Amino acid sequence: MQLFAFGINHQTAPLSVREQVSFNVNAVEEALRSMVDHGAAKEATILSTCNRTEIYCNTTEPARAIDWMAEFHQLPQREIEPYLYTLPRELAVKHAFRVASGLDSMVLGEPQILGQMKQAVRHAEQAGTLGFVLHKLFHRTFSVAKDVRTQTEIGANLISMAAAAVKLAERIFPSIEGQRVLFIGAGEMIELNAVHFAARNPAHITVANRTLERAQMLARRINGQAITLNELPEQLALHDIIVTCTASPLPILGKGMVERALKQRKHRPIFIVDLAVPRDVEQEVEELRDVFLYTVDDLAEVVKDGQDARQGAVKDAEVIIDSGVADFVNWMDSREVVPTIRALRDHAERHRRHELDKAQRMLSKGEDPLRVLEVMSAGLLNKFLHAPTHALNHAAPDHRAALLDAVHQLHHLHDPE
Hints:
By secondary structure, this protein is an alpha/beta fold.
């Protein structure tokens, strides 16, 4: 059992690096099967969000697992290594517990990461790469995260990414009430933002998505209009605030499209929040004079408000996590002896069967049952004691004391007084 985790996150890598190693949600299961099929791991789970890409795996060759990730993204490993953290065994367990509990998030205590981790586990289940070890790890992870959130104040005074986006918009515009808002995408992050912006009663709301049906579902909830992504070039200029978060591997909004929209708007400013990784908005768009472009990393300063009040809960959370780690490590240690126990029982069973067969043959010849029992019990005794007796008699002097202690401990022996 070789539990291992590795990855990059918002603390170790800038957005420009994170977006290169992110996994598209539609390709995660294929990636998981590829990792296992290539022998890089026996079990694997991929957690890929806007703030992190992490792989939890059961592997005897951690270096091979890291090589696989670099090859999958067609990147030289030297470009990833400066940003990569590697976490063997109990460090991997502790990291999983901290991530699920919101202690490793850009927004301390945010609850969304727990749902993202559960989704990652579902993908691994569907891909067939969630084996016994990882199933146990994540089952315990979710239990610890629940304890942290119910027994501490880690989620108190929480400012979400969605609330932060609203605060930034209110710095650009006197009021959101008179603005036209466009949401690109219809996933969980967009839904959260849509609810926050809709509460400010903007003049108009539009939801753009690849599939019109999903856009319509969200639009009905927030009293908005639904369009497809193909309509963006004509619709972009009509909106003052744009929030985008899709799973597209390529930018949705290019510099040329935004430039044309600005001309149609007679250079009235556009506020854009790009929460996607990889980014939905071409990086060159930030060069345009009348565009206020913010990425997920730019929201970090805003969400720090209220974080100091939650720092006191971190110590309480760490106590719960450390206790959970100790329990899980004990479980892993206990599992390490299972193959030896199984082999020992198989060895003893072979001796038992051999002596039983011998006894049955003696009985079939009409021999005295009491003598048969005596022969069988003596045979079992000799066979079970042969190996330890031979080991004691032939032990090297520097190993004999340790072997004697082990025999005394295993058989509850006491030195004669």
